[in-house]
Specification:
Layout: E1 2-9, H1 14-25, E2 29-34, H2 37-50, E3 57-61, H3 62-65, E4 69-74, H4 78-88, E5 97-100, H5 124-131, E6 137-140, H6 147-151, E7 159-163, H7 167-177, E8 183-187, H8 194-211
Parallel strand pairs: 1-2, 1-4, 2-3, 4-5, 5-6, 7-8
Helix pairs in contact: 1-2, 4-5
Length: 225
């Protein structure tokens, strides 16, 4: 398992692609995963064009993308989360970290994205934790980072990222934030706190609608050392 390798499932979407661009620019090996391998290959080619100095960017089917990756980032819509994780169970290995970016927005059932759905486990991240094999760590992060700001490589992202989960995997995901100019990791404590962080996404979507912020609104916590 390569400690430098990051698999991004759903890396063909706006936010996942933005993370792929940023991590590739930081010199990390990036594997973009998709249910449709051809889309993953197209996204990888797009990253290589925008980041010609990238050392290694590949596109694969989801199940192949997770093999050998120390960190697997789930950047898929909430309604596809459970099926995606179930399809990867046999490929995930003890010691891997799965990062949940999902948010149970009501848009998943045809309602507005400014509201969230109740999840039996408490949050999307905790749902993921209930589905992964024993020994695989789940961390919550990156829900509230603007896709537009991630893809605008010439400017810092300017956003705090609340990272929640068990201590050691949480700290390893927090280290990823330092690879992206303008991102600051905030220690969010145990995974149960993802319930709070995920709900903030719906609030930010509503703020974006009312204030019409094209680049997307981020969050900052004041008073931190």
């Amino acid at each position: 398992m390569s400690e430098q390798s990051i698999a991004i499932l759903g890396g063909t979407g706006d936010q996942g692609l933005g993370l792929a661009l940023r991590f590739a620019r930081a010199g990390r090996r990036v594997v973009i995963g998709s249910r449709k391998p051809e889309r993953a290959l197209e996204a990888a080619e797009q990253v290589r064009k925008q980041v010609p100095e990238a050392t290694s960017v590949e596109g694969r089917a989801n199940a192949d993308a997770v093999a050998g990756a120390a960190i697997v980032i789930l950047s898929v819509p909430f309604e596809h989360t459970a099926d995606t994780v179930k399809g990867l169970r046999e490929k995930l290995a003890p010691g891997q970290i799965v990062v949940s970016m999902g948010v149970p927005l009501a848009a998943a059932i045809g309602d507005g994205a400014v509201r969230t759905l109740g999840v039996w486990q408490g949050s999307c991240a905790e749902l993921v934790a209930s589905l992964v094999p024993k020994g695989v760590h789940v961390v919550s992060a990156f829900q509230n980072v603007s896709a537009h700001r991630l893809q605008h490589l010439d400017a810092p992202v300017e956003c705090d990222v609340v990272v929640s989960g068990a201590k050691e995997p949480r700290e390893r995901v927090m280290e990823l934030c330092a690879l992206v100019p303008g991102l600051r990791a905030v220690d969010g404590g145990p995974l149960a706190n993802a319930r709070i962080v995920e709900s903030v996404t719906a609030l930010l979507i509503g703020l974006n609608i009312r204030y019409q912020v094209e680049a997307g609104i981020g969050i900052r916590f004041t008073g931190l050392p």
